[in-house]
UniProtKB/TrEMBL annotation:
Pfam families: Glyco_hydro_7. Residues 1-22 form the signal peptide. It comes from the Eukaryota. This is Glucanase. GO terms for biological process: cellulose catabolic process. It catalyses: Endohydrolysis of (1->4)-beta-D-glucosidic linkages in cellulose, lichenin and cereal beta-D-glucans. One of its GO terms (molecular function) is cellulase activity. The keyword Transferase does not apply.
Amino acid sequence: MEIHSHLAAVLLPVVFLTTVTAQTIGTTTPEVHPVLQTQTCTLVGGCKTKLTKLVTDSLAHPIHSVTDPSKSCQPLDPALCPDQATCAQNCVIEGIQSYESIGVLTSGTSLKLREYLLDGTQYKKVQPRVYLLAEDDLNYEPLRLLNSELSFDVDVSALGCGMNGALYLSEMDMSGSRNSNLNPAGAQYGTGYCDTQCFKTPAFINGLANINGSGSCCNEMDIWEANSRSTAYTPHTCSGVGSFLCSGNECDSGVGVCDKPGCSLNTFGLGAPGFYGRGRVEHRLDSTRPFTVVTQFWTADNTTSGDLIEIRRLYVQDGSVFPSTAETTNGAVNNIPGGWDGSITEEYCAVRNPASDFTRLGGLKGMGQSLARGMVLIFSIWNSDGDFMSWLDGQASGNGPCNATEGDPATIVKTQPDTSVTFSNIRWGDIGSTFKVDGPSNGSTPAPGTGTGVAAAVATNGVVGGDVLERSVTIWAIVGLVTVWMGMFLS
Ligand SMILES: *[C@@H]1O[C@H](CO)[C@@H](O)[C@H](O)[C@H]1NC(C)=O
Ligand SMILES: *[C@@H]1O[C@H](CO)[C@@H](O)[C@H](O)[C@H]1NC(C)=O
Ligand SMILES: *[C@@H]1O[C@H](CO)[C@@H](O)[C@H](O)[C@H]1NC(C)=O
Ligand SMILES: *[C@@H]1O[C@H](CO)[C@@H](O)[C@H](O)[C@H]1NC(C)=O
């Protein structure tokens, strides 16, 4: 048990040198983190593989009474947890030995998340959310993406209406707010989660009992929230640096410390339903087959200390690279002086979300500062009993084709219990360094019918989506190479 001895090395001093033993690490079940290989890339040096790992949120771990393991410490039991110090003495957090048992499957560079698992004859909801740990297996892996890009391949074909397979960043503390007295477990057990929703409900925040109902807030960059029907990416800002607590109406929308709606870009919602969806004939980007998603964070002066001015999205499918569409029927967006190029800019946010908190709480510049400080990469799959995810894909919100009931989790578990998302080939680094295409392309739609995932010979007149791409894409011509899909010859 390599993990066990590692833990012991870290924790023994805590256990023996202090009298407060804390939300101590239990000894019944070890924590065994799945490895998910990722890569960091530079233009000059190419890509280097990292043996990064995954941990699920601390609250998804068993947390129980020291003396009576059948008694859970969630939700907080006033008898066990009258205050933080007593709670820490009375409760232990146990490990998770099999991440497959919570719907997390990894292999090499690939991560599959499942919403449901068969439990006897019934499906149970597992809905995992996992965080990227550094190679040290103790702390989160800091991603600093200002003036850089992140790319990954995704398969959303098994995500229907109401599902959300998400990949995003939160400005969590890299140690998981580890604290030798009250939270010795830290990132290794998935503590320290925060986001712009500032949820007031968690039993523990940063591993400490949340006695007074605080919310846990921090900047959040939603790189990818999607199913096969609709997709969005959204920066969200907060007034504070790092992770911090809110109380009362500080945690609320409109008056609070974080921007909950964010400055979102959803191509369907902007009036381009033909851009993304199921089927090559009907859509430019066919969500029934894998593709590569590239997100670039451009600064005003092309340095890592400049102001973030643009968040640009590119896609790669069938050997062709193309930007998120600039086609829109939205009058305000169409009227942006100088035109709109299909990306998230201050001008876009100003007209797209006139009432949002985004600008008040820092705007793109604030988002950029958070990206520069470093954020934690998070993967999740989820559906929602409250709103059926209609803000992402529903006719009611105008953001997708799904009707009022299709996204109901009660329907999903009956019609598609094997729903899942697969992320793979996660890379970050210099703009232009994390992806390749097998031939220059002008972004035109290949003829329908080539679509079994085999990269077809693509147009090669060397123009990639006009000036938008000239400045942001580096293309390597790999003549004659036919691959099953992008990621395979990169890995
Ligand atoms: C709630 O408790 C936390 C300690 O976990 C403390 O930092 C915070 O100030 C408290 N909030 C209020 C409003 O008392
Ligand atoms: C929504 O779509 C589903 C699947 O196509 C269909 O069975 C259902 O009747 C529709 N519901 C409504 C309210 O239109
Ligand atoms: C892109 O290439 C295709 C295929 O060769 C061609 O039909 C199309 O006209 C080209 N589009 C542009 C804008 O050059
Ligand atoms: C940043 O780089 C892009 C792409 O190379 C270029 O078009 C742009 O002019 C540069 N901006 C500055 C301020 O140098």
